[in-house]
Design goal:
This protein folds into two domains: 205 residues, no CATH class; 105 residues, no CATH class. The chain has eight helices and 14 strands. The chain has a six-stranded antiparallel β-sheet, covered by helices on one side. A two-stranded parallel sheet has the order 3-14. Helix 6 packs across helix 8. The longest helix has 17 residues. The chain is globular. The N terminus is likely disordered.
C-alpha cells in the first residue's frame, strides 16, 4: 500500500478518525438496492445466454437471491446422482400462486422455478467447498412453461445456456468417506420435456401441496412452507397445513416404510408413471393419488415384456424384492433397462434399500 493511504506519525490518529467518520457516514445511508429481477428477460421469446442476465441473484455466484425469490424444499426430492439442490420460486410483484390439493400449484405468468444442482467436496462437511454444476429454470411464460438449463464454469462466476446438454466430471467424498467419481449428465431440451410432460404440455413437478407441507429453515426460523407461502402473500386458497395432503420424507426413519417408499416412487417415477405422463400407456401409476394395488404394480405384469424386465414376471412381487421388475430396473445403470431413464447415472443405494424393505413388507 502506498504512503498516501498508510497512517504515519502524528497524523495516524487523525487519519484513522477520518476513516472511521467516513465509514460511519456510509453505514448511515441505505445501501443502494440492487436492480430487480428482469421480468422482461424471463418472458422474452429468446432466452438469455447467461443466468446472470435475469438478475435472479444479486451476485455472480448465485448465492444471494434477489428480492422476490423465496427458497423452498420438497419433503422427498428426486434423486439426481447425490446432487444437493437449492430451490427458489420467483413470483412477479403483486401476483400469487393458486393452491391445488392435487398437482402443482397454478402459477401466474412470470413465475420462475429455480433449481441449482451442486456438490460439496466432502458430504461430511456439506456447507463447505460447494461446486455448482447447473441451474435449471422453469418459467411460466404467456404461452406455457419454458425449461432452460445453465451450466456453471470452473471459476463458478458464470452459468451459460446449454440447450444440447453436457457431460461433466464430478468428484466428491460421500457421507461414508468414500471417494466418488460421477459422469454427471446435464439434460438437453428434449429430455427436460420428457420428464416435465403432463398431457403433452410442459409442467412443473415438485411444487405441490403434499411436497411443500413440511418445515423449512428460513432466516427467521423454521416454519411450515404452506403456512409461510400463505402468510407471505405467495399463495392463495391454501388450507391450514393440517388439512392439506402431506408426502412423507423418504429418509425419515420414524415414518412408516410404506409411506416413505410411496413418496420415493412418487418423486422418482410418477412424473412419467401417472395417467397423464409419458408412461401412461404402461398402466403402472406410481403417484400418491393411486390406491389400486395392481395399478401401483403389485402383481402387475408389464404391458410389453422386454429385456428391461430381466426375465421377471411382475412389477412388484409382494414379499419378494428379488423377483420384482421395478426393483430390478432401479438397480440397473444400463440404458434401456434402468429406471428412471433420465436424471441419474448411478444407483441410489439408499433408495433401493427402502423400496426393497417396502416390497418385502407386502403380503403375498
Amino acid at each position: 500500500m502506498g504512503s498516501g493511504l498508510r497512517p504515519r506519525g502524528r497524523n495516524r490518529g487523525d487519519r484513522y478518525r477520518a476513516f472511521a467518520i467516513l465509514a460511519a457516514a456510509l453505514s448511515l445511508g441505505a445501501a443502494p438496492a440492487p436492480p430487480p429481477v428482469d421480468l422482461a428477460a424471463l418472458l422474452a421469446e429468446s432466452p438469455a445466454q447467461t443466468l446472470g442476465a435475469y438478475r435472479l441473484f444479486t451476485d455472480t455466484r448465485a448465492r444471494a437471491p434477489n428480492a422476490g425469490l423465496t427458497p423452498y424444499a420438497l419433503n422427498t426430492p428426486l434423486f439426481s446422482d447425490y446432487a444437493e439442490k437449492f430451490r427458489f420460486v420467483y413470483l412477479p410483484p403483486g401476483t400469487k400462486a393458486a393452491y391445488r390439493a392435487v398437482g402443482a400449484f397454478d402459477f401466474p405468468v412470470g413465475a420462475t422455478l429455480v433449481k441449482t444442482f451442486a456438490y460439496p467436496a466432502d458430504f461430511r462437511r456439506p456447507s463447505e467447498n460447494i461446486r455448482y454444476v447447473e441451474t435449471r429454470l422453469l418459467i411460466r411464460q404467456t404461452d406455457g412453461w419454458a425449461a432452460l438449463t445453465y451450466v456453471w464454469n470452473e471459476a463458478q462466476d458464470e452459468a451459460r445456456l446449454k440447450r444440447a446438454g453436457a457431460r461433466l466430471d464430478v468428484a466428491f467424498v460421500d457421507a461414508k468417506g468414500q471417494a466418488r467419481q460421477i459422469d454427471y449428465a446435464v439434460p438437453n431440451a428434449n429430455q427436460c420435456k420428457e420428464c416435465h410432460s403432463l398431457s403433452g404440455e410442459l409442467a412443473p413437478i415438485g411444487p405441490k401441496a403434499r411436497n411443500l407441507n413440511g418445515d423449512f429453515a428460513y432466516a427467521a426460523g423454521r416454519r411450515n412452507q404452506l403456512a409461510h407461502w400463505s402468510a407471505a402473500g405467495l399463495l392463495s386458497g391454501a388450507p391450514a397445513p393440517s388439512a392439506a395432503p402431506r408426502a412423507a420424507a423418504w429418509d425419515d426413519a420414524t415414518a412408516p416404510v410404506a409411506d416413505r417408499a410411496r413418496a420415493y416412487l412418487d418423486a422418482n417415477c410418477a412424473h412419467c408413471h401417472n395417467p397423464a405422463g409419458m408412461a401412461s400407456n404402461s398402466g403402472l401409476n406410481l403417484d400418491l393419488e393411486e390406491t389400486r394395488p395392481a395399478a401401483m404394480g403389485v402383481g402387475k405384469r408389464p404391458v410389453a415384456a422386454g429385456r428391461g424386465s430381466g426375465g421377471l414376471e411382475v412389477s412388484i412381487a409382494p414379499g419378494d424384492p428379488d423377483h420384482s421388475i421395478l426393483l430390478h430396473r432401479m438397480k440397473s445403470t444400463e440404458p434401456g433397462v434402468m429406471m428412471p431413464e433420465l436424471g441419474r447415472t448411478v444407483v441410489h443405494d439408499e433408495g433401493v434399500a427402502l423400496v426393497s424393505d417396502y416390497i418385502r413388507s407386502l403380503r403375498p
